[in-house]
Amino acid sequence: FGSYRGTSVPGFLRILLSGEIDPTFVNGSFPGASPFAPNPETLLPTTDGKIYVGGRAIGLVRVNENGSIDSGFAPPQMSTTMVASAGDPTGDIYVSSFSQFRRLRPDGSPAPTFQEPAIDNQMNIVVPVGDGSTDVYAGGLFTAYAGNGVNHLARVHSDGTLASQTVRGSGFSIDVRDVEAGGDGGVYVVVNFPVS
User: Fold this and answer.
1) Cβ(67)–Cβ(25) under 8 Å?
2) Which of 111, 119, 145, 188 has its CA 20 to 30 A from that of 95?
């Protein structure tokens, strides 16, 4: 967005309740001369005040509460279009790029029990199912998951395998933008508005 209240800003900053820019937050703290150009595209705050920041050009980093880079997080290099909490006690996260879906540990290393699937396009959203399992719903532009036709929505086990409840074959005809678990294993889904 370039500026905020007449002040030039990078693509990532913290605004106080007063509406002013937080002067204690290190804006645009990625390594490099222009760290937030192009801008971050996805954020995930953690319970300890840190924030995962991802983007197609910047990859994935975790910043401390003051905006400085957390050197204790060293993920594999990948274009990052989505980051989401695994929603379980491990502190793991899910990340996606245009053709990758990974589960990472809090230190950035790949989760050893997760079988990375082949997907044909990115995921927009991942949310815990909320039925007492460790499964997640994943929605996005993808139409294939580990060799299965799933048409934009999948239920995935914590090891990366496809759950049997996933609708295979005929599903959504357009990409899924948002998903919210219904609490009983059901799911609310928002799809991209079709263009005629």
Assistant:
1) yes
2) 188
Whether a cis peptide bond, with omega within 30° of 0, leads into 110 is: no
Strand 3-4 relative to strand 101-104: parallel, antiparallel, unpaired?
unpaired
**d(C-alpha 34, C-alpha 25), whole Å:** 17
Strand partners, 55: 59
What type of residue sits at position 176?
V
With a CB cutoff of 8 Å and minimum separation 6, the contacts of 131 are: 181, 183, 184, 185
Residue matched to tokens 């996606």: 96
What are 8-39's pLDDT values in tens digits? 776 778 899 999 988 888 766 554 334 444 57
Q: Which two tokens stand for residue 107?
A: 């230190």
User: Tokens for 188?
Assistant: 């609310």
Return d(Cα 129, Cα 14) in angstroms, integer. 30
- Going by C-beta distance under 8 Å and a sequence separation of 6 or more, which residues neighbour residue 35? 10, 28, 29, 58
What is the dihedral sign for C-alpha 52, 53, 55, 60? negative
Fill in the amino acid letter for 12.
F
CA 123 to chain centre: 8
pTM: predicted TM-score of the whole model, two decimal places: 0.86
Q: How far is CA 53 from CA 46, 60, 133, 174, 188, in A?
A: 11, 6, 27, 27, 26
Hey, how many other C-beta atoms are within 10 angstroms of the C-beta on 74?
A: 12
Residue 106 CA, chain-centre distance (Å), reads 14
